[in-house]
Predict the structure.
Amino acid sequence: MTAQLIDLQPDNSTLLEESIAGLKANPRRLPCKYFYDAEGARLFEQICELPEYYPTRTEIGILKRFLPEMARLIGPRARVVEYGSGEGLKIRLLLDALQTPAAYTAIDISREQLRLAASQLSRDYPEVDIQPVCADYSSALDLPQPHHAFERTVVFFPGSTIGNFAPAEAVAMMRRFAALARQGQQPGGLLIGVDLKKSRQRIEAAYNDALGLTAKFNLNLLRRLNREVGANFQLDYWQHRAFWNERQGAIEMHLVSQREQVVHINGDSFSFTAGDSVHTENSFKYTPEEFIALAAEAGFRSAGVWTDDESLFSVHYLTL
Ligand code: AVI
């Protein structure tokens, strides 16, 4: 049976309002969740394949190696809720490892990609209740209850997307995960991928790839604002910049104005001089200890941490 998509996707007025508020703020910013229109989602998939972008392949390696152990800790008849399900590749590894998974709720902001991934999963896992929900998950969501009985709820948040939230927002989000993980007959947990701190050189290379795909991904945000809310950004007047901010423990992505210019969006005008920047993304990295301390603020305790041989990436299982 094809899974019925629940559409809670915000409309363009939210994109417009949040972008204008961000461009009026000091320092100027644009929300990174808006990277993922159809083109942005496609570019992100390509970034994940790049030799410099180590997180995806390293996390998949950790999952393939340690999932039997993770699945034992999770237990049988789980309902899995994934935030930012994307192409739906990692969930297959998890569903294959779990003992009789009951339900899978996939939440993503990219509607078409979600629809496709959910229909393929419904075909390949007919015994699992697949529930696609198209939504911006950065604030609280009313999720559907599964049709199948389940024992515990496990939140799956791979890819180090938690790093795209500032630490205080990450704690607020994990508090919502904790509330969700309490649903079911038994307390559940959070299986989460977290990128590790490492050399500046290695991190900066991952966000400044030789093919320029990350630059395209960053600039695509301006293309989206032009198309969807009638902005008039000249793409060749902007340049991608990504650097490691040691004090923050985050890689920062910016779009830097290459000249003096005025941009119009829906009756508002924004003036930029050469060198002015718009902050588009943070990607926080944590040591295992730092992340365990952060998760503790949300009520979680560590039940296991797995890393690769080079200590590039970590996967945590946290319980209540
Ligand atoms: C989705 N997120 C974890 C990616 C990251 O690494 O922060 C997004 C990304 N930005 C640039 N490259 C990839």
